[in-house]
Design brief:
- The chain has a three-stranded antiparallel sheet.
- Helix content is 41%, strand content 16%.
- The chain has one domain.
- The chain starts with a helix and ends with a strand.
- It contains three helices and three strands.
C-alpha cells in the first residue's frame, strides 16, 4: 500500500517522541531516511514530496532547516527539531 502523508507524520512523531524520552536536546532527520523508514522505495512511485511536506509542516519555532533539498521536495532535506516538543 502506498503511504500517505499521515504515514510519514506517524513515523516522524514516533521518532521525535523516542528522542525526547532519551533526553536529547534535538533530533536531526533527512527526508531520505524518513522516506526509507516508511516506504523504502525511491523509484518512480516515491513519495518524497509528501515526506518533505510533513517534515516542514511539523517544524515549530526554533527548529532549523540544516540542509535544503536539492530540488523543491528532495531527499537531502534535513531538519533539526528541538526537543522537548
Amino acid at each position: 500500500m502506498i503511504p500517505t502523508s499521515k504515514d510519514f507524520q506517524v513515523q516522524l512523531d514516533q521518532l521525535l517522541q523516542e528522542a525526547s524520552k532519551q533526553g536529547r536536546p534535538h533530533f536531526d532527520i533527512d527526508a531520505a531516511s524518513l522516506h526509507h523508514m516508511v516506504w523504502g522505495y525511491y523509484g518512480r512511485k516515491h513519495r518524497l514530496p509528501q515526506c518533505c511536506y510533513v517534515m516542514k509542516k511539523t517544524m515549530r519555532h526554533g527548529d532549523l532547516v540544516i540542509k535544503e533539498a536539492d530540488q523543491d521536495q528532495g531527499a537531502s532535506l534535513t531538519i533539526r527539531y528541538m526537543l522537548p516538543r
